[in-house]
Write a structure and sequence with these properties.
Rossmann fold; alpha/beta; binds magnesium ion; 8 helices; binds ligand Z5A
Length: 213
Amino acid sequence: MATPQPPTRGALIVIEGLDRAGKSTQCSRLQQRIPNSRIIKFPDRSTPIGQLINNYLTSASSPPLTDQAIHLLFSANRWELLPSLLAALSAGETLILDRYIYSGISFSVAKGALSYEYCRSPDVGLPLPDGIIFLDLPPDVAAERAGFGGERYEKREMQEKVREVFKTVREREQGEWTVVDASASVEEVTERVWAATEKALRWARENELREIE
Ligand code: Z5A
Ligand code: MG
């Protein structure tokens, strides 16, 4: 009699990009195409740590948190979800992350006071994604999209700097990166995102989950 096989692990797919690049739109469209999949959005504003982050982003924290404090809270928000992420992946569920450590590094470095090494170090040991899809959009196009400008980092100058740091992040951080021109139509972006996702799903079927080094 054949012994029951454990389920193949789920894939870890990350959608990154600047503000209003269409990350949440594409995450939903991906989720509809991938059976047994779930979206996890970072920051997860529903936890107590996430509420501190939300207060900061909406400028409600007084006095404002230091750059170090808010950076470590963003990372802690990922670490607090780790047990549930790992449980889902080993049960065969695919996770689609709407932002991850790469936003963490890019936004904090772009503020100017913290080094790249400092910014990446608290996330070392978190799971390495099977594919990272970066939606690239010039900030002036983003600024024309609905909802831009409400939160702390949603300023043109900041977004330009973040875009620059993201280039360094893509060069330095391990993992399979795909850059997609996010100024195309929603449908065209989805097709390009899907091509990269299929690769990541195949990779996850054949390889163990690794950690960020
Ligand atoms: N942050 C950090 O500092 N450190 C960290 O570790 C992490 C995050 C994880 C969280 O913002 C902030 O925290 C963010 C980074 C920082 N700061 N900033 N700035 P968030 O992720 O919660 O932000 P959001 O409110 O979800 O917005 P968003 O993610 O920037 O937007 P989006 O998800 O990329 O876009 P969207 O909601 O899918 O689409 C925006 C609009 O454009 C909407 O009207 C769409 O219908 C439209 N859209 C989408 N695609 C298209 C195309 N292709 N063409 C035309 N229009 C489109
Ligand atoms: Mg979003």
